[in-house]
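Hey,
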Amino acid sequence: MAAFFLLSNLGNAFYALEGRQPSGGFALLCYLGFGFAVAYWIHADNQRLGRRDSLDQGWLIFAAWPLVFPYHLFKTRGNRGAITLVGLIALFAATYAVSLLVFFALRPRAAP
């Protein structure tokens, strides 16, 4: 998840450096990539916990990850699921901060 967050945030930073909106393809790749990353993470987590996946669970997670992901965290970890969720949000914030540092380090300086 960290690698995905970092790559997508850096991609957005480089688009901003050029003064352009991210392309539709990049935005779609980020959206689909996050869905697949969440589906893979839940699959790996189920294997780690010794739980069986249903046959179509990957597509369900991919299609409804905003609902399924928090549900999975709280179902498998109880209240500790909130800690994991906050940790993932903090991971996103950290990679966003890195992309901001890259943006400000590489942006052209304004002439006085």
